Amino acid sequence: MIRGLHSCLLAALLLPASAHASQESDLEKLRQRLAAIQRDFEQASESRSEAADALRDSERAISDSNRNLSQLTRQRRESDRDLDRLQQRTAELSANYNIQQSLLGRLLYRQYIGGIDQDYLKLLLNSKEPNQLARELRYYDYIARERADTLQKLRGALAELQAATRQTSAKQLEIVALQNSEKRELTQLEREQDNRRITLRKIGLQLKKQQHELARLRRNEARLTTLVGELGQLSSGGDGTAFKALKGKLVLPVSGEVSNRYGERRAESNLPWTGWFVRAPARQPVLAVAAGRVVYADWLRGFGNLLIIDHGQGFMSLYGNNETLYKQVGDSISTGDIVAGVGNSGGNVDSGLYFELRYKGSPFNPDTWIKHPRGKSR
């Protein structure tokens, strides 16, 4: 029954862009199914009272806080740009206003000097020659129209200036609100990081007492393999030939040193590595090695904040131990997109990225796929 549900979800996931509303509905179903898979993993794994469960909650919260902070920062930058444009427009309107004021001042001065403020009756009484009277009346009409036009422009400039000023004030308030939100997110992030440090210390003490490291690693690997197998049932089934053509051309997702490679034995258990661990500073961007779709973005025991991209025809890339997951299930990914931020989630001591390539659920050696596998990338 579960596999039948997976097939339905797969068909829904492949709907063309023209069926956008239906695709959104099916994407929500996909996310609900993935949430159910995650709950099954949690129920089938170690007791929820373990410190690792507290670590999961803390690291999920840190990832969410970082993502929210990133979004708020982007919104504030956009607001800053809007404010700059408004301030520039305000300066232009203010300059135009000053010009119109100057024009009006000169016009009124000419009226005063020339005595144009006299009315038609006075002109008629004082004029001795009809031609002169006509010329003076035409000149009077010209001045009157010019003054009316200048006054109209002045009123328009004033109205625009007032509107721009109101917009600028509103934008400034918006920026202040965004900055306050950023501060709250930062405070929340710092609180979660403190909780994480406490939890890591607890896990450290717990691990010292454990005599079954080998069994733990095997459970972690089995958990990941089961997850990838479940996700394989939801695979987009896209054209994997594009990914195959990238063999030997992929670039490491982060700039760093590959400290542990596929097939090497783990010092703590003698089990082989099924992927690469790339040492890298915390929060460094993690880039997608190829185009695809996010099929998993959540915390998984042993791998911390884990993101999995489906590249079609059974090919997947995995990015683990992240501090922050910037993408979510269903997001379409292009080569080089920032999908996560480096960390040491999952209980790792070292900061870096755990990277795997898998085909039809089984891990394979990235060595012949990565363009420059030795030493530092890029």
Describe this protein's structure.
With 378 residues, this protein is an alpha+beta fold. The protein has 2 domains: 166 residues, Helix Hairpins (Orthogonal Bundle), CATH 1.10.287; 152 residues, Glucose Permease (Domain IIA), CATH 2.70.70. Helix content is 56%, strand content 15%. It has 7 helices and 10 strands. Strand 4 and strand 5 form a beta hairpin. The radius of gyration is 34 Å and the shape is elongated.
Topology:
Blueprint: H1 2-13, H2 20-44, H3 51-114, H4 120-126, H5 130-209, H6 213-233, H7 241-244, E1 257-260, E2 276-279, E3 285-287, E4 292-300, E5 304-312, E6 315-325, E7 332-333, E8 338-342, E9 352-359, E10 362-364
CATH fold type of the largest domain = Helix Hairpins
Briefly, what CATH class of the largest domain? Mainly Alpha
Largest sheet: 10 strands, antiparallel
- Series of secondary-structure elements, N-terminal to C-terminal: HHHHHHHEEEEEEEEEE
Average pLDDT score: 75
Number of domains in the coordinates? 2
Strand content: 15-25%
Q: Under the CATH scheme, which architecture of the largest domain would be assigned?
A: Orthogonal Bundle
Question: What is the rounded distance between the termini?
Answer: 46 Å
Can you tell me the overall shape?
Answer: elongated
